[in-house]
Amino acid sequence: MAMADQNASGSFRLSMLIYDSRYRSMTIQVIVLIMVVLGVVWLVDNLLSNLSALDKDPNFGFLWETSGYDINQRLIEYSSQSTHFRAAEVGLLNTLLVAVVGCFFATLLGVSIGVMRLSKNWIVSRLMTVYIETFRNVPVLLWIVFAMAIFIEVFPQPKAFRGDNATAHMIGDAVAFTNRGIYIPRLEFHEGSSFVVYTLIASIIGIFLFGKWAKAHQEATGQILPTFWIKLGILIIPALVVFFVMGKPIQMFYPELKGFNFKGGLHLRNSLIALTLALVIYTSAFIAEAVRAGIMAISKGQTEAALALGLRPKRVMSLVVLPQALRVIVPPLISQYLNLTKNSSLAIAVGYMDITGTLGGITLNQTGRELECILLLMIIYLTISLSISMVMNIYNNSVKLKER
Amino acid sequence: MKKSVFLGTLAAAGLMAGFASAGTLDDVQARDALKCGVSTGLAGFAAPDANGRWEGFDVAVCRAVAAAVLGDPEKVEFVPLTSKVRFTALASGEVDMLSRVTTWTFSRDVDLKFTFTGVNYYDGQGFMVRKDLGVASATELDGATVCITTGTTTELNLADYFRSNGMEYEPVPIETNAEAQQQYLSGACDVFTTDSSALAATRATFENPGEHMVLPEIISKEPLGPLVRQGDDQWADIVRWTLNAMITAEELGVTSANLDEMAAGSDNPEINRLLGTEGTLGEMLGLDNDWAKRIIASVGNYGEAFEANIGESTPIGLSRGLNALWKQGGLQYSPPFR
């Protein structure tokens, strides 16, 4: 049969897989794919046989056993009687807290510094250059440890606040800076407080609608309204009125020195502050450079044209340069958000209990389930990173150059 | 054709890559060095001295094993490990044994698949505070901030102790003893808790040890000892009987000073068996008959090692207490050399 096929023109022979340029690239790709798959199979097989030689089989049952350890910073209910799974959740929330707060402040700081570095004021632009070069060229771990050391060594101990001849004092009887963290007043919500919150939400919706109306108004009449002050008014005044009408349902709860520590207020642990601060200053230096690159990518002609039209320098920046610069800025910004989130796993250096500290630290150590814990950790970080990427890509699509 | 040969080779390579490991003893002898996991720096137990040479009570166990197996107590590669990574390091074969103030517990022995080869220090968890804190008992610690090494049994004991006494506390997790000292001395935590021997060792390194006190409560049993991977019984036997040889030597009055005299032969058959002038105990272990002699020549007997590193004449100043020989009312008791 094979002989018969050879005579027919265009028939397929096995050697054509290599000698016929139509099939060659396909053949090579298939071979590479098989090799990759075999490589992965070999690695997994090696792992499993090594594990069975150690008498360990992958098993996630430990997640539902009692953890037995305490965690200082808990955003959700947790005690040493909770499960390892719950401990992982506590850690995950702590990671997300640092990531969200860190990304927010890093963006604020980074954008301001990036813009200021381009300032025509010599001293401002030089200072910002020094800031950027200092913070982005020292490893972030050192910044984290350094920030923590400053917090521990510089601020007074809680007991320094005690007695008549106390050496340290609270600021306005409300805020205490100690070497265990910063204690600030806590808000306590009583009955009726929900109305204040609803009013606040309604105000925010109002601000949004007003912004739209103001824009339409400006496009229709050319009149520019002082939107910032009006928006601020919409935000504060109704909520304040409802707050007093309902008889002050939200109260401040001040921290007080009781026993060994301050109690009653909100405790911002120095591990949280040191970690967030270090990540913010480090990442903001990179963001500043991305912003500078974005702005410098806009040709000078755009600025000159805008100035020729009579726009003020501030408006040139906000109406002409920044919207165009954003499409250059956003892609590197995504990487910086991802970097910040992943760098937050250095938390254990200052004893901040993030997901790496709970699931990848204490749980791993107390249960001896290294493989399972690390695998879970990788999946979790991957999920967080991909989610950030996805959200930022949606945003990127909305600001990118629209070709019509 | 060539392709299938290649794939066949690849598949065969995949099949061959099983778990191939000779006994730990063979590995150590082939390497001519013992990899011993120790603390990252705990005065008296394991810390490098001014010349960078590792010294301490745990270190002595490592050196004893090296002396028995390799004939030279200096052929040890010390691997400093934090509490957190020590088990992974041992399980993965990065070290041959751990001698790292590690508590013998059920789950570590059974679930983590290790074999504890004895107890070189019977300990318990304690609390250290500054004297000016005005606390006399651990039951007064409600609301305190406590520095605690993560990945240890003390972390679990602490949670249990405060919960069963209805007290609250703020844990400050730390990785190494050095970090704990920094936090504790700067007052970032009120209390430092760990094994009381380690508290004494840490306090001894303070500038003013007199300003600090260890509270009277001992809240747990912490039998500390060397451990090896489960499944290599010969290696476990060597480590176990190295420690037992040190204890037995003390019991029989064999010291590094009178070793030569004793090794010349004595009227006590157990001394003769221990030092290899009678019987073949060393060969049964897969070593030679002088193994125990080398141990005692290098690190001394149990009592000598204790006194030299953590005993009352050292800055750490621990008394023998529970760690006295059984004949003196302590718990140190070696099965007979027979």
Structure explained in plain terms:
The complex is a heterodimer of chains A (404) and B (338). Chain A has 404 residues and is mainly α. In chain A, 66% of the residues lie in helices and 6% in strands. Chain A is built from 13 helices and seven strands. In chain A, the strands form three sheets. Chain A has a three-stranded antiparallel beta sheet. Chain A has a two-stranded antiparallel sheet with strand order 3-4. In chain A, strands 5-6 form a two-stranded antiparallel ribbon. The longest helix of chain A has 34 residues, at 84-117. Chain A starts with a helix and ends in a 5-residue tail after the last helix. In chain B, the strands form five sheets. Chain B has a five-stranded mixed beta sheet, with helices on both faces. Chain B has a three-stranded parallel beta sheet with strand order 4-1-5. In chain B, strand 2 and strand 3 form a beta hairpin. At the A-B interface, helix 3, helix 6 and helix 12 of A face helix 1, helix 4, helix 6 and strand 10 of B.
Portion in strands of chain B? 15-25%
Indicate the mean pLDDT of chain B: 89
CATH structural fold name of the domain at 84-154 and 269-399 in chain A: MetI-like fold
Please tell me the total number of domains of chain B. 2
User: What gyration radius of chain B follows from the Cα positions, in whole Å?
Assistant: 22 Å
- The helix-strand sequence of chain A is HHHHHHEEEHHEEEEHHHHH
> From the 3D coordinates, which CATH architecture of the domain at 84-154 and 269-399 in chain A would you assign?
Orthogonal Bundle
CATH superfamily of the domain at 84-154 and 269-399 in chain A: MetI-like
Please write out the topology.
The complex is a heterodimer of chains A (404) and B (338).
Chain A: H1 2-7, H2 16-19, H3 21-53, H4 84-117, H5 122-136, H6 140-154, E1 176-178, E2 181-184, E3 186-189, H7 193-221, H8 227-245, E4 250-253, E5 256-258, E6 261-263, E7 266-269, H9 270-296, H10 300-308, H11 313-343, H12 355-367, H13 370-399
Antiparallel strand pairs in A: 1-2, 2-7, 3-4, 5-6
Chain B: H1 2-16, H2 24-31, E1 34-38, E2 47-48, E3 54-55, H3 57-70, E4 76-80, H4 86-91, E5 97-98, H5 106-110, E6 114-116, E7 121-123, E8 125-130, E9 144-149, H6 153-164, E10 169-174, H7 177-185, E11 191-195, H8 196-204, E12 212-214, E13 222-224, E14 227-229, H9 233-252, H10 259-263, H11 269-275, H12 281-284, H13 291-299, H14 302-309
Parallel strand pairs in B: 1-4, 1-5, 9-10, 9-11
Antiparallel strand pairs in B: 2-3, 6-14, 7-13, 8-11, 8-12
Helix pairs in contact in B: 3-9, 3-13
